[in-house]
Amino acid sequence: MRQPLIAGNWKMNGTKTSAEALLSGLVAGSVGISKAEIAVCPPFPYLALGERLLIGSSVRLGAQNVCTQDVGAYTGEVSALMLAEFGCHYVICGHSERREYYGETDSIIAEKLLACIKQQLTPILCVGETLQQREQEQTEAVIGTQLGNVIAQIGIDTFQKIEIAYEPVWAIGTGKTATPEQAQSVHYFIRQQLAKHDQIIAEKVRILYGGSMKASNAQDLLSQPDIDGGLVGGASLIVEDFLAICQAGDAVVL
Ligand code: PEP
User: Fold this and answer.
1) Nearest-CA residue for atom 4 of ligand 1
2) Which of 9, 33, 73, 152 is deepest in the core (most CB within 10 A)?
3) How many structural domains comprise the chain?
4) CATH code of residue 140
């Protein structure tokens, strides 16, 4: 069985004070959680705080974005080397909000994945369809293209070092969650797409679900055979809610 990973994506939320409280609460509350892996991705300015407060805990630190380039005149950007220096383990790449608001293409996202891997960071590659695409029954075509473009650019072997998050855009921050069956069906599809290239990698890669995951639906989602964790937005901002999801992740491990 793949170890569940529950990763919190704070997005652009919080203050120094709330970040400190959330991180400390997570450290204290994660003590009994040993089977699921926990990660938290605060905004860049709070990474140093995360590095300091998470020391000695099993909670891993992650970032929400990274530059495609290693160093140089790229105003406003943050490199993978910098993230590694601040103790990051994970980096969310290609979140739908970055695709939509910042024009990130599959090609840019593929470069970001490589930039992470070069610095021994583990990228979490996000894929997902919009409501319109789902209604037009294009879900598999869209996700097949998002994945296929990345595989064509960086190769299937790279997926040994990548986590995937299936995040239906219509479920992100909307309170609408994919049913466990809907999510499982897309997760299975993603694994099949990878298996066409390499069956062993397909079996090993973790595919997280993201989209209004909360304490009340986490266990049902996480019990599905191809759902290996969660990428959690809103519910990761409330320590009790996030810990309850982490506990659900722990509980599905036999
Ligand atoms: C996300 O932004 O990755 C996400 C899943 O958000 P939410 O849980 O709020 O839907």
Assistant:
1) 233
2) 9
3) 1
4) 3.20.20.70
